[in-house]
Amino acid sequence: MESAATGPQAPARLRTTPSWLLTQTAAHASRLVAEGLGALDARGYHYRLLAALEESGPASQAELGRRCGIDRSDVVAVLNELAAKDLVRRSPDPADRRRNVVTLTDAGGRELRRMGETLDRVQDTLLAPLSTAERDQLTRLLTRLLDHHTGR
Amino acid sequence: MESAATGPQAPARLRTTPSWLLTQTAAHASRLVAEGLGALDARGYHYRLLAALEESGPASQAELGRRCGIDRSDVVAVLNELAAKDLVRRSPDPADRRRNVVTLTDAGGRELRRMGETLDRVQDTLLAPLSTAERDQLTRLLTRLLDHHTGR
DNA sequence: GACCAACGTTGGTTCGGCCAACATATCAGG
DNA sequence: CCTGATATGTTGGCCGAACCAACGTTGGTC
Question: Is the CB of B19 under 7 A from strand C?
């Protein structure tokens, strides 16, 4: 819960380096997200997969991984955990026996919603010092960066 | 070197969530930094400590950690590596025998400079799609967020 | 002198991100 | 039809950054 503050004052070299600002703020963001989702016994990966399932419907594991930017191998582990809690159902795809079709269960939908609510609160504490306009600005800038480095 | 692209299109839920945008762009930033510094056989922690040393002069390990936002225990390990390359000298503080005084060597200064140059290039590829004004905007917004979550 | 705080150090943990390898299954070309 | 390339799920590992608990030593204070 501690702020892990950068004590006195970080070196100017760092404070003016965008990559450092990014990774530092991201670290704070991650901590807040972990705290929030941790209360629901979940992590970022769980939310991402559930969100993708709700938004685009059932999909294979590989497809899910591609959509969320999560490695195939990590998808396996997270789906195991989600399936163990019945938030997700994994069934062999009759049309392509290599694939598993992953489906969001009702409980999964409910859990996703709960996660979404806590994440909304997290965004608010994360962006607390910024006005609405500034939040939009930040979002736009980051989106452009991300799109660029993602191959559009 | 791969872009690890978020395949087709990440769920809108994610793409509009600032904490996700932050952690994703930060991941790209970290990758670029790791690539750049990796060529010099260094990591982010090494640069941070060297930069702090150059900027504020010799200091104890605890002090360095506080300045850089690096945990005491991690400082130990990184200083071991830096000292092994003679980029840093670690000597007991005669005034306080609990402390080690860490000093930047000439070689350390040179290496820091080299790191700084490659990091400058990294910033440029990281921020490629943004104009100078936009880069400043981003820097200001992130700085405000960081200051806020750092206890000012 | 007794206590508590700070320091350096060791040895963990977590989370996100990645890679290599393998068996199985699909698909396209010869 | 068969053969080879490709996709999928899965296992088991690795790394960097961030953290935490504990211990022995040293410093300052009451």
Answer: no
Rounded to the nearest 5°, which phi and psi values hold at B45? -55, -40
User: Which pLDDT tens digit goes with each residue over A72-123?
Assistant: 999 999 999 999 999 999 999 999 999 999 999 999 999 999 999 999 999 9
Which residues 51-110 of A interface with strand C at a CB distance below 7 A? 69-74, 96-98
DSSP A105-143: -HHHHHHHHHHHHHHHHHHHHHSTTS-HHHHHHHHHHHH
Return the domain boundaries, chain A: 42-125
- Whether residue A145 and residue B126 make contact (CB cut-off 8 A), yes or no, is yes
**Is the CATH number of domain A42-125 3.40.50.150?**
no
Tokens of A143: 């989106």
Minimal C-alpha gap between B123 and chain A (Å): 7
Burial class (CB in 10 A: 0-12, 13-18, 19+), B108: buried
Residues B138, B111, A6, CA angle at the centre, nearest 5°? Answer: 45
CB distance A89 to A103 below 8 Å: yes
Model confidence pLDDT, tens digit, residues B37-81:
999 999 999 999 999 999 999 999 999 999 999 999 999 999 999
CATH-assigned architecture of domain B24-148: Orthogonal Bundle (1.10)
Which residues, given as ranges, of chain B have pLDDT below 70? 1-8, 152
